[in-house]
Structures are given as C-alpha cells and as structure tokens.
Automatic annotation (TrEMBL):
Keywords: Signal. Pfam families: Phosphonate-bd. The keyword ATP-binding does not apply. It comes from Neobittarella massiliensis (ex Bilen et al. 2018). It comes from the Bacteria. This is ABC transporter substrate-binding protein. PROSITE patterns: PROKAR_LIPOPROTEIN. Residues 1-19 form the signal peptide. InterPro entries: UCP027386_ABC_sbc_TM0202.
Length: 335
C-alpha cells in the first residue's frame, strides 16, 4: 500500500510539473487569453527634426494614457545611436531615413521591414539677395552651398540636375559644408548666395537672413518628373520578429500614428508646442517649419511603389546608398 501511495504521489508531482511547463512565459505585460496577443510596450525610436514631428500627438496621448498603444520613446541626434539597439532587439520601431531602412534590411538578412513613409522631401534651394533662380536652368554656372555630401541630399540634387538637363560635374559648383549652420553662416557673409538647405534650417535661416527666399522645392520638382517615385526623407521601420509576434498591436500603432500625423498637419500651433515638449525643435521654429516639412503617412501599395522608385534612383547614383542591392519585396510591410 505504501508503495502504491508513493507511486501515486510521484505521478501527481510529475503531472503538476508538466502542467506548469505548459504555461508559456512570453515576458510580456498582461495576460494571454484565447485568440488574443499578450500586451506589450512598443519601444519607439526617433531622430530630432521632421522625421519625428509627425508622432508627437501619439507620444503625448500615450504619456497621458489616452492611446491604446503603450509607448516607450527614445530620442536621438543620430541614427547611429538607434540602429544597433533595433538590431539587438532593444527597440522595436524606428523613424529614420528611408534609405537606412534598405541598408539595415540588406545588412541583417531581412530582419527589418518598412512600414510607412512618414516624411517626404524637406530640402529646398534657397537664394539670398536676388531673384535670379526660378528654374533649374537658372543654376547653370552658379555656386551652391550645401550639406550632405555622399548621402541622399547629394544624390537627390544630382538626379534633379540631370533630369533637368544639367551636368552636376560641370554646370554647377557645389561647396559642401559639414553642417547646415555652416551654410547659413556662409550665406550671411555674402550679398548674394544660393544654398541647398533642409527644414527646419530653412526656417532658422529666414530668421537670420532677411532677404532669403525659397527658389526651388525639391519635392515639388521631383513630383513634376511623374516617374512613379517620390522624394522620400524618412519612414517607419520595424523588427520583423516584432511585426510577426504582435500584428494586432502593430496595426493599432500604425492607425494611431496616422492620426497623429493628421493632427500635426491640421493643428500646427498646438503641434508645435508638442514638438518642443519632446525636444525636437523650439515651438516658434516648428510652427513656421511644419507646413514645409511634408509630414505624411503613406503605406501599402502606394508606399511600395513610391519607395521602390526612390531607392532605384539612389541605387543608380551609388549602390552603397541602399546597402549594395535593392531590397526584395518582403522589405515592404503588408497588412
């Protein structure tokens, strides 16, 4: 009898042990119920500037517990501060330059997906002290001060010059500076000057140089080419593992992100206060710059077509700008 009782007791302990092992520890917050995902905090990263301006209403709502998405936000001055954390699984979603998404995809064996375009072009040709530049032809023989050598601003400028019949190597002289502030300082010392500047530095420069004017909007000029692509500054990328594990929460996040961009574009003054709150740029500058930052939300097939065309342009200029090769179709997130 004792042996039988001992055997039954042992069997009961084994049964309890395996029952406990059957409870999956997801490491997430909340409970898992049948047919539902475990809730998790989305770890979001963004860069100072237009790239992060569209998300400020969502950040505010999440902070005040008014959104369904729970967000832990990390701001950085450089993408180099964020991308290692994404690849190590310490961040889930980033708002970064569009071509960086392609580079990360190629360098991580497809570990990231591109969710949506969140910023179109923010670069402008500006002129101080005159009204001599009103078309690309007017740039022939001129000197342009600019930043972004070896990166997308240079490739975009070269592409648009070429598409408008100018040779970047012989028809214009580009003096490259390391920072937009250097360009502004250079312009300030001259009676007449031409520069390629991004927002919000165009707005900053206009507060320091009274007779500064926007001569050409590179986004609008790109659109005139009507070539099934768009001039894209930045977008949202996600770790593929996160997208596959939390599809419902990712979809809700994207819905709330889109609503946030709509709010920013429709409520510029209030949005500017939030832009300053999240240490992106001061509110007075943000209020003037937001209408020219082309903050948007484009996903699905429209995103895929526009981004494919844009990445093709960069690849043709320099394959390294997209990570050596164009991404495969699984780079483009589909609901």
């Amino acid at each position: 009898m004792k042996r039988v009782l001992s055997a039954l007791l042992a069997l009961s302990l084994v049964t309890l042990l395996f029952a406990g092992c059957g409870e999956k520890d997801t490491g997430d917050k909340g409970n898992v119920s049948s047919g539902q995902e475990a809730t998790t905090t989305i770890r979001l990263g963004g860069l100072k500037g237009p790239t992060s301006m569209g998300m400020v209403k969502l950040l505010s709502d999440a902070e005040e517990k008014k959104s369904e998405s729970q967000i832990e936000f990390t701001m950085a001055g450089s993408a180099d501060e964020l991308t290692p954390k994404l690849l190590k699984g310490e961040l889930d979603i980033l708002a970064v330059p569009a071509n960086l998404g392609a580079i990360l995809y190629n360098n991580s064996e497809g570990a990231v997906e591109f969710l949506a375009i969140n910023t179109l072009g923010v670069i402008y040709i500006t002129e101080k002290g005159g009204n001599t530049v009103n078309s690309w032809a007017d740039l022939k023989g001129k000197t342009i001060y600019a930043t972004g050598k070896g990166s997308t601003p240079e490739y975009a400028l070269n592409y648009l010059l070429q598409q408008n019949g100018l040779d970047p190597a012989t028809d214009v002289t580009v003096e490259w500076k390391s920072e937009p502030t250097e360009v502004v300082a250079q312009m300030a010392t001259q009676d007449q000057a031409i520069a390629m500047l991004p927002q919000p530095f165009v707005t900053v420069a206009s507060t320091q140089i009274a007779d500064l004017r926007v001569a050409l909007d590179l986004t609008g000029e790109w659109d005139k080419l009507d070539n099934d692509s768009q001039f894209i500054t930045a977008g949202l990328i996600v770790r593929r593992e996160f997208a596959e594990k939390y599809p419902q929460q990712l979809q809700k996040f994207l819905e709330e992100y889109k609503a946030s961009t709509d709010y920013v574009n429709q409520n510029v003054e209030a949005a500017a206060q939030l832009v300053e709150k999240y240490d992106i740029v001061k509110a007075p500058i943000a209020q003037k710059a937001i209408p020219y930052c082309n903050i948007t939300y484009i996903d699905g097939s429209e995103m895929k077509t526009a981004l494919k065309g844009y990445l093709q342009v960069l690849y043709d200029q320099n394959p390294a700008s997209v990570g050596g090769k164009l991404p495969a179709d699984d780079f483009y997130y589909e609901k």
